[in-house]
Each structure stands twice: as structure tokens, then as C-alpha cells.
Amino acid sequence: MLCLVVLALSFAATNVRAQTGAGRGPDPSTVRDPDLEKDSMKSLEAVRLYFRLRKAYVAALNRCEEIIAGNPTFSRMDEVLYYAGASSLYLSENKGKQVPKKEVSAEKYRTDGRDYLSLVVNNYPDSEFRKLAEKELSRLGGPKITTRQ
């Protein structure tokens, strides 16, 4: 009987060692909170509505900045950055149905737009929004050369 217990424990210990050596689980930078992901997706849907249908670039930019600050590992961050960048550029050109914030200069909107769009180009090479970002950046002389920090 004692031999069976020792044999069972040694077998279990072998399995435990094998499991811990096999891997450490998903990369923590990509582990996402499902509730936060769901909230961010709802906000992104609002951004799409503001940007595409209503031409409400101030509202779109505000929502994008909320997503960026609240969920930096959001699975659709490339899209959020694109909309933030395009909204900023359009606000710098006084486009859209909303008046840009008076305390933010056109140059600041342009700089922020270039920064957001450059992040899409530099950090998301396989993104469907890369070409759109490059098109917007071509008017500004191209993307800033940056890398993910």
C-alpha cells in the first residue's frame, strides 16, 4: 500500500514539474479583462457613429482618448488610434459639424493627429487601418518614426 502511495505521489510530482516547465500562460500584456473589452467595444461603436455618420470629430476624439487611457491593451487599439488621429486632423482643418475646442490650437490637433496615425503605421503593420493612416499622413509629410515603448 505504501508503495502505491509513493508511486502515485512521484507520478503527480512529475506531472507538476512537467506542467510548470511547459509554459507560463499567456503574455500578461495581452491578457484582457472581458468586461473592459466589452465596454471599450461599445465606446468604439460610438466612435464609429460619431466619426462616420455625424462628423462629430470632437466627440469621436474624446471617446478615443477615454479608450486609450482606460484600456491600453484593447484588442482594436489600431482602429481607436486611427479614429483619434483622423479626428484630430479634421479638427485642425475645422472640418465636421462640431466646433473644435478653443483652448486647443490647430497646430496641437495636427501634431496629435500625426502622433496617433504614426502609432498605427509604426506599431500595427498588419492593420487594416495602416493604409488609411498612411493616406492621412501623406498630407503631413509621412509618419513620425517611433517604436512601441
CATH topology of the domain at 35-138: Serine Threonine Protein Phosphatase 5, Tetratricopeptide repeat
**Helix content, binned percent:** 55-70%
CATH class of the domain at 35-138: Mainly Alpha
Q: Looking at the structure, what is the overall shape?
A: globular
CATH architecture of the domain at 35-138: Alpha Horseshoe
Fourth CATH level, the homologous superfamily of the domain at 35-138: Tetratricopeptide repeat domain
Rg calculated over all Cα atoms: 23 Å
Which structural class best describes the helix and strand composition? mainly alpha
Regions with little confidence, pLDDT below 50 for 5+ residues: 2-26
Distance between the termini: 58 Å
**Helix-strand string:** HHHHHH
Quick tags:
single chain; 149 residues; mainly alpha; Serine Threonine Protein Phosphatase 5, Tetratricopeptide repeat; disordered N terminus
Q: Can you walk me through this structure?
A:
- The longest helix has 21 residues, at 2-22.
- By secondary structure, this protein is mainly α.
- The model is unreliable at 2-26 (pLDDT under 50).
- The chain has a domain at 35-138: Serine Threonine Protein Phosphatase 5, Tetratricopeptide repeat.
- It contains six helices and no strands.
